[in-house]
Amino acid sequence: MSVDHVSLVDVNNFYVSCERAFDYSLRNRPVVVLSNNDGCVVARSQEAKDLGIATGEPFFKIQRLMDSHNLAVRSSNYELYGDMSARVMELLGRYGTWHEVYSIDESFIGLEGNLEQVRSTAAQIRKAIDKSIGVPVCVGVSSTKTLAKLANHIAKHNPGLGGVCVQQLMDRSVLDNILSRVPVTDVWGVGRKSGAKLTSMGIETIADLRDADPLLIRKKFSVVLQRTVFELNGQRCIGPVEERADRGQVMFTRSFSTPVRTYEAMEEVMSIYAQKAASRLASEGRYATLLTVTAGTSRFAQGEASFPSAQVRLPRPTRDPILLSKLAIAAMRDLMQPGMDYVRGGVILSGLSDSPGEKQLDLFELGDGQEEEQKNVSSVVQDISARFGAKSIGLGPAGMAQSPQWTMKREHISQRYTTEWDELLEVRA
């Protein structure tokens, strides 16, 4: 009988795996990927973990390992990671009866068939992604999403399984032994705070939580954790999941490599970030009704601090890069204090909708000729961005070929192998 199973496909060490897919010199050696401005470690290879490097560790503390332990360091290459993620998700969609993207490197997909057929399909998925995209994945299969996450966890930590774990095919005593040893905080949806409270109640392992009284869990915690108990017992009760990225807003907030002190430099920041946010809105087919601008000095700096922030209600849902750029610049100009060292800034678009809506009171109304001209320019900018990429065109500072001095520091960045023509991988024979 054909049965619908839940599988979780997760790319192993995603950022590092993307780097290794194009640079074989990174294989079998410790590799770390750094956060914005090369501040701290956000991803590690297994070899780097074995050296004791922790997530969040400042780069300057491990820099010495580059010479002593052949540690490879890469700045975050978001263009590469985003494109590789899209390729993985597109391929996964070919295998499942349904497909839910959970994060940049994780997807739930539905698989039909008996248990042996499902195990064969999971192995095919691993092989196809490795061959077509070049990144390793593990696949966990079970009857519920919570158990599929658990099965994926087991696949990752047991190399003998070949990266695939079908929970229903496991020996019951082996599974019970694992569940009685893994901490309850390793269950999907159980955070540190809930874990501490569960531990105080004597619920320390996944097996303990599975065997707990669902009514007591709901009374002490919430219906969400009660569902987790049901799912651990094979009762499917978690519906479609939302992608972890916030779908309610589009953000462009960054730290600067050098402080921004002048009106002119801050105008560059606001103009570029507003146009990037508008470009992303256009790519998603959405419109914003609220614009928020922010900036800030360092919390650790001596002397006076400044954290300007303002919200602007837009006259109607829009993704017009010209209008958003003008409003962002105007809003921040009234708030910032020239001469202070601003180390971060950002533009946030929220109140998103799928249609531009009706025109309402327009406080920024232009003459007929000017409005038509602005529409034409905005349309051209959006069309070119959609066809050739967000960096192909820009208004004012956003159109400069060379990045401003304050932009993010990425001294160890790799090539954007899949999104830039002039950075394609070179192969010599």
UniProtKB/TrEMBL annotation:
It comes from the Bacteria. InterPro entries: DNA/RNA_pol_sf, DNA_pol_Y-fam_lit_finger_sf, DNA_pol_Y-fam_little_finger, DNA_polymerase-Y, DUF4113, PolY_HhH_motif, Rev_trsase/Diguanyl_cyclase, UmuC. Keywords: DNA damage, DNA repair, SOS mutagenesis, SOS response. GO terms for cellular component: cytosol. The keyword Glycoprotein does not apply. The keyword DNA damage applies. Residues 6-191 form the UmuC domain. GO terms for molecular function: damaged DNA binding; DNA-directed DNA polymerase activity. GO terms for biological process: DNA repair; error-prone translesion synthesis; SOS response. It holds the Pfam family DUF4113. PANTHER family: DNA REPAIR POLYMERASE UMUC / TRANSFERASE FAMILY MEMBER, PROTEIN UMUC. Poorly processive, error-prone DNA polymerase involved in untargeted mutagenesis. Copies undamaged DNA at stalled replication forks, which arise in vivo from mismatched or misaligned primer ends. These misaligned primers can be extended by PolIV. Exhibits no 3'-5' exonuclease (proofreading) activity. May be involved in translesional synthesis, in conjunction with the beta clamp from PolIII. Belongs to the DNA polymerase type-Y family. This is Y-family DNA polymerase. It comes from Glutamicibacter ectropisis. The lineage of its organism: Bacteria, Bacillati, Actinomycetota, Actinomycetes, Micrococcales.
